[in-house]
Amino acid sequence: MIWCLLLWCVCCRGISSQKVFWEIKDLAITSGGNVTLFCNTTSVPGRKVTWMKKSDVIVHHGLVFYRSKFAEVSGTNILQTPTTTSERDGYFYNVSVSIVIPYQLELCDGYLDVKCSLNNQTIPVGNKRALPVCNVFWEIKDLAITSGGNVTLFCNTTSVPGRKVTWMKKSDVIVHHGLVFYRSKFAEVSVSEGSFLTIMNANESDFGVSYTCIADIFSFDSMLDLDVLNVSVLPNDNDVHMSWNLESRKLLQIYFSGIFPIPHCQIFHKGTNILQTPTTTSERDGYFYNVSVSIVIPYQLELCDGYLDVKCSLNNQTIPVGNKRALPVCNDSTETNDHTVLLIVLGILVLVLLHCVLSRIIECEIRTLINIASTLRTNPKQEMSSLNKSERMETITFLAQTP
């Protein structure tokens, strides 16, 4: 990677020991006119050029960021002195030209174009040859993202091994070959496969902007957007509020602040989901959502015993939303009914037994009286003398009613 800067040359900081320099062309300069600078990279052929003004990238590998202010033209001869052998054939020559690229030169993307000339006259030597595509890219690591937490990007440079990485946010260089320019916001770790960029305390200003990773002459830029299919932004613990009301049909209200995408919540009682579709309202807050979830139980549903357990998820990832809530003990109507039936049965049994006992007593009394009556008929004076007055009266009444 070659960096040519206005008023500052990165090469002088030890990136390369070879001579790379820029100079002013087309003197003299006219106030209000155009100024042309030329970056000479003949000592490192094949390298694309990035131009910077202070710490702001204005041209990167042919891409001009401020077209109303700057223009760039490039074309690189990757080998100044190819190997040439020749033999005389009469008045002419038979010539062999061998082009061997240096070991440090990695070629991919674009075309190779060969130009030969005789006394400044171009000789046609065939078509351009396309090069394979360079595969340098970055991706998000360590999902899900937490609002206010860290976001980690990984620049994969396995197709160009051994190359140090430069990171850019929009057109601003934030990391260059391990040097971090904004240490309070970014951190970088280099590995053999590429580079990890950590965005600390990620907020709204860090999303919806382009990030570029550069390795040697290859680069990849993409927007850091929140994608509902593969990115989840979890709220902090302080951004989740729960309000229980077991006395009301509006059983529970959950409020999420700074979440993405909209969560899906369920409430369970004894392992059963008692409400499939809670009421959810949301409002967009920049790239995030503020979401309110209301759980209202049906009128016919009576909840008691055990616990209520709330589960919310983002892209199949569970969100912690608090502890379970214990329910009051049920007055079991089935058990009460069983007791009532048992009491009725016992009452009936008592009545039957009482009836049997009374029948036995009455039967015994009747038999006694019958025996007395039978005896009185044969010897009335003997038996009556042993009875008291009331017994005599009962006996006389019984005898009068008995045929």
TrEMBL record:
Keywords, in A-Z order: Membrane, Signal, Transmembrane, Transmembrane helix
Cleaved signal peptide residues: 1-17
Residue ranges occupied by any Ig-like domain in the UniProt entry: 132-232
Pfam families documented for this protein: Ig_3
Tree of life domain: Eukaryota
Parts of the chain that traverse the membrane: 340-358
InterPro entries: Ig-like_dom, Ig-like_dom_sf, Ig-like_fold
Keyword Membrane: yes
Official protein name in the record: Ig-like domain-containing protein
Organism listed in the record: Mytilus galloprovincialis (Mediterranean mussel)
